[in-house]
């Protein structure tokens, strides 16, 4: 365990870059051999758009890196947070720490983004992808990085996470972003069994269906326990029932142009078909003309 702690306390940048770039390459190859869907698209162009978006996202995230490190150093120095208040062996600290950081930094903020309209307008950029593959995990509006980092920092404070657990969590999180978005055909029985513990490719693909109510399910990134615990878990029997994208932005002029993707959060809101913000929609429709 000491070697793991020592490694992630000062994790090499090459290791983190290797997970990001190497993971994409590996799953890029796998999804080409065992695809879930046979997409007819310009794969390199599609990847380029998503890489540009993640470039902006990373720059914003780096701006918060000092706050993240400072929060971790503070809770460690002042013995604040769950891991400092409850005595547990290192192996259990790892499990509890990574699970709770996954809750705050992935599940909770993701759920909130789907419930608050102005935050949803940033997050829906991720949902505009109509050909979900391994690079879709990189497709986020740079503004969303602010939400994600704020909730990750909140998680660090509540958990009392030392920096080595934070870096371990971020490494696992990046790997799962590749796995769950990759366009790979996993045996359904294997996927179903694993989905009791982890977020699996098919489980997350349900979240990328273009209409309600499936869009508002399966928010997790690493652990499936949060969706199952809070009643947001859903599954489909036939993957062919899934259509990727978001019903308000199915036009390629809107979902396949980097300029428009960056402007989406500042454009007029369009309510999707289904339940999202439905009360507001009904009130709008009932206004006298």
Explain what you see:
This protein has one domain (2-286). Helices cover 61% and strands 0% of the residues. It is globular, with a radius of gyration of 19 Å. The N and C termini lie far apart (68 Å). The protein contains 15 helices and no strands. The protein is mainly alpha-helical. Helix 1 (2-9) crosses helix 9, helix 6 packs antiparallel against helix 8 and helix 6 (90-113) crosses helix 9.
In total, the number of domains comes to 1
Structural class comes to mainly alpha
- Which percent band covers the strand fraction? under 5%
Rg from alpha-carbon coordinates: 19 Å
Topology (elements, then pairings):
Elements: H1 2-9, H2 13-33, H3 43-63, H4 65-77, H5 82-85, H6 90-113, H7 117-127, H8 142-159, H9 163-181, H10 188-194, H11 201-207, H12 225-229, H13 252-255, H14 258-263, H15 278-286
Helix pairs in contact: 1-9, 2-9, 3-8, 4-8, 6-8, 6-9
Features:
mainly alpha; about 290 residues; 15 helices
Give a concise summary.
The protein is mainly alpha-helical and 289 residues long. It is 61% helix and 0% strand.
